[in-house]
Amino acid sequence: MRLSMQQLVFRTKQVRERELEAAKTLGVSPAQLMQRAAQSCLAALERQHPAPARVMILCGPGNNGGDGWVLARLARRVGYQVTVVAAQAKSDLAKQAAKAWRDEQGNVEPLEELDRAHLAECDIIVDAMLGTGLSRELDSTYRKAVETLNDAKNFHKLWVLSIDCPTGLQSDTGTALPVAVEADYTVTFVALKPGLLTGQAGHYCGKLELAELGIAPAFRQLERPFATLIEQDEVARHLPPRQRNSHKGRHGHLAIVGGAPGMSGAAILAGLAALRTGAGKVSVLTHPDTQGIIAAAQPELMVQATDAASTAELEQALAGVDAVVLGPGLGKSDWAKCLFDFLIASELPLLLDADGLNLLSAEEAWQERSAPLWLTPHPGEAARLLNSSSSEVEKDRYQAVNELGNRYQAQVLLKGAGSLIANPVARHLRICHRGSPALAVGGAGDVLSGIAGSLIAQGLPAEAVLPVATWLHAVAGEHAAIDGERGTLPSDLFGPLRKLVNP
């Protein structure tokens, strides 16, 4: 199935090196491309805040600033009150665009003198300072401009549009260097860039729009995508309607292993998520002290206690199971380690989460494993698996998830805003651009591991499990948070989840 440009993600260098070549093949000049970019931004302005409105456009020295200069002329022609605050234009296109603005008697104020009082006189601020490709920290001039803009935005409730990429945000990693414009809306050009889709990007980009500028088909012929977004149609393909003669044996038997004393809730949440995602049977293998608690919580869960000391007992308890999730409420006791050692050496398809991942980071037994393995770490767990720090993981989430996949030869989901999935066999990254801050609560990860485990047990292709599970979890979180993000509970996802797995 051929994907649209709205699903394909390319590195900044790919776009920078190929966009003019793609435009040339279609007879589009660089100046025309800049005109199209500015027109796309004007269309976004008119949809969000129609004229007349007071617009200040902050222009940098390069072609991003050139887009801003052209936008200034277009916006004034349709009735906006436009002020330009700019650095000296340096690129040829920016110089031409700046001259055209001045030739129409447009005033220009120096960027170095930008202050909050002046910003407060406007309704809309357009950030056309630096755009994509920032690879080092902002210098003092641009850092001051960014901080002044953010301060004014938050104090005076200004609406901010960033052109191509918020100034200060690294467009390949999603890291602020060290600060970035807090835009309400970002229009990016030609193709989506990875740094606009993960990490800190959600905070800085606001609503993200791709403007292909009429050259996307030609560009696509020149470059291979770096990653792809997970979309609803892909999820639906893997969740077809069930046959009328279905029975529970056709829909997989999942075992959740965990629920140490004091942490039974994690195993319950994972088990319920697996049931709501459609597993035919869900067993919970747990600590003797919590068996009664889990069994009383949900009658559909088959709960069995184990002291983990007997290999024969574990083999019997897991006989007939199609997949295992190890980790929800597991802890790091000797009991937990015995379970980990048994399962990592088994031939059962295995998903590790929570303390299952923490035990993995301290062991080397996984190197002998040949059976399928899925890992679902958050940045802290990823850091332990990589002998790194969470700040290093977040500095380049794409590099971290790739390294995890290659090191452990596993399908890996790096959780967080803009969750990433690495497949070491296909060597292709997936990005989930859905979700809600409502998911930032204890227990949400247990729900996700239950969803993924259920899909493994139901026989989804190995490479489809994490993309489908991540999308379902993210979108269920969005639906659950309709009445408010604060106070949404992981168990609130079960109703939306049931609807989403029955498209």
TrEMBL record:
AMP binds at K415, G416, A417, G418, S419, G445. (6S)-NADPHX binds at residues 63-67, 131-137, 142, 164, 266, 329, 378, 446. GO terms for molecular function: ADP-dependent NAD(P)H-hydrate dehydratase activity; ATP binding; metal ion binding; NAD(P)HX epimerase activity. Its EC number is 4.2.1.136, 5.1.99.6. One of its GO terms (biological process) is nicotinamide nucleotide metabolic process. K(+) binds at N64, D127, T167. InterPro entries: CARKD, Nnr, Ribokinase-like, YjeF_N_dom, YjeF_N_dom_sf. Keywords: ATP-binding, Isomerase, Lyase, Metal-binding, Multifunctional enzyme, NAD, NADP, Nucleotide-binding, Potassium. Binds 1 potassium ion per subunit. Residues 15-221 form the YjeF N-terminal domain. It catalyses: (6S)-NADHX + ADP = AMP + phosphate + NADH + H(+); (6R)-NADHX = (6S)-NADHX; (6S)-NADPHX + ADP = AMP + phosphate + NADPH + H(+); (6R)-NADPHX = (6S)-NADPHX. Coiled coil: none annotated. Its cofactor is Mg(2+); K(+). It comes from the Bacteria. Pfam families: Carb_kinase, YjeF_N. Catalyzes the dehydration of the S-form of NAD(P)HX at the expense of ADP, which is converted to AMP. Together with NAD(P)HX epimerase, which catalyzes the epimerization of the S- and R-forms, the enzyme allows the repair of both epimers of NAD(P)HX, a damaged form of NAD(P)H that is a result of enzymatic or heat-dependent hydration. Bifunctional enzyme that catalyzes the epimerization of the S- and R-forms of NAD(P)HX and the dehydration of the S-form of NAD(P)HX at the expense of ADP, which is converted to AMP. This allows the repair of both epimers of NAD(P)HX, a damaged form of NAD(P)H that is a result of enzymatic or heat-dependent hydration. In the N-terminal section; belongs to the NnrE/AIBP family. Belongs to the NnrE/AIBP family. Homotetramer. This is Bifunctional NAD(P)H-hydrate repair enzyme. It comes from Pseudidiomarina insulisalsae.
